[in-house]
Amino acid sequence: NNAWAVGALQAAWSAIVHTPIPEVDPSNHLSEALTTAIRIGHDTDTVAAIAGALLGARWGMTAVPACWRRILHGWPGIDSRELERLAILSVTQGRGTKYGWPNVEHIDYVPLQYGLPALARHPFDDGVWLSGATTLDHLPEGIDAVVSLCLTGRSQIPDGVEQISFRLLDEPSPASNPNLDAVLIDAAQTVYDLRQEGKTVLVQCVAAHSRTPTVGIAYAMLLGIPLEQAFDAVCRVLPAASPNAGFWEALRRLADRRRNVA
């Protein structure tokens, strides 16, 4: 009986503990356990809300698939990015974090370009651009969607351009990106999905040195390009590209996984 508070909590907990944690990409437990909670039936909104709160506390925001975040909507016009902003302001008592995010309108990344502003077409798909953050001030014509791998100001993406953000720190330590493999796959899959929708996509981080080329390589691998060929081609169009050691290991794991599936 999950039509009352205690029953709903029991149903949510049951959905979580009876959904196995995947051996590969354990953070996928969030989406799989929520699917279990919804399939219970009856008071599914309450059950899933409770389960989602508990699973979110366990796995973090990076475990929420981008395909879910893209369609999230609420009143009055709140989307996933606004929900994230409100959450950050709640836990920081309104102060925000680095650069004043998420309240800041524009983050000046010019000093972090090291004299090498980056902008290039993806070597295996000319409908995908790879860039640093300064490109956001002058987007190439025809960009329909921006996949952001770093913090951006509230007004930094033009109106009418969809933005999908991924929390990805440019640090090699596994502790910095606990859901790294899942995030890279999700980001590359999001680029693929946007392209299937006919959209022209810009993938950007601060300087396109590590995060952007890594996602660009992962996307190329989704297109069937071997890791070494994808790495060489992406680094050729982004001369300053140098994915950190943690990202490189994640790409190797992705390549191994694709070989095992094949």
Chart the SSEs and their pairings.
Elements: H1 5-17, H2 29-39, H3 44-59, H4 66-69, E1 73-74, E2 78-79, H5 80-91, E3 119-122, E4 125-131, E5 145-148, E6 162-165, H6 180-196, E7 201-204, H7 211-222, H8 227-237, H9 245-261
Parallel strand pairs: 4-7, 5-6, 5-7
Antiparallel strand pairs: 1-2, 3-4
Helix pairs in contact: 1-2, 1-3, 2-3, 6-7, 6-9, 7-8, 7-9
Strands of the widest sheet, in order across it, are 3-4-7-5-6
Low-confidence stretches: none
Helix and strand run: HHHHEEHEEEEHEHHH
Proportion of beta-strand residues: 5-15%
- The dominant shape is globular
Average predicted local confidence, pLDDT: 93
Radius of gyration: 19 Å
Helix % is 40-55%
Q: Could you give the count of β-strands? A: 7
Distance between the termini: 45 Å
Biggest sheet architecture:
5 strands, mixed
Supply the number of helical segments: 9
Structural class: alpha/beta
Overall description:
With 262 residues, the chain is of the alpha/beta class. The protein has helices spanning 5-17, 29-39, 44-59, 66-69, 80-91, 180-196, 211-222, 227-237, 245-261; strands at 73-74, 78-79, 119-122, 125-131, 145-148, 162-165, 201-204. α1 crosses α2 (29-39).
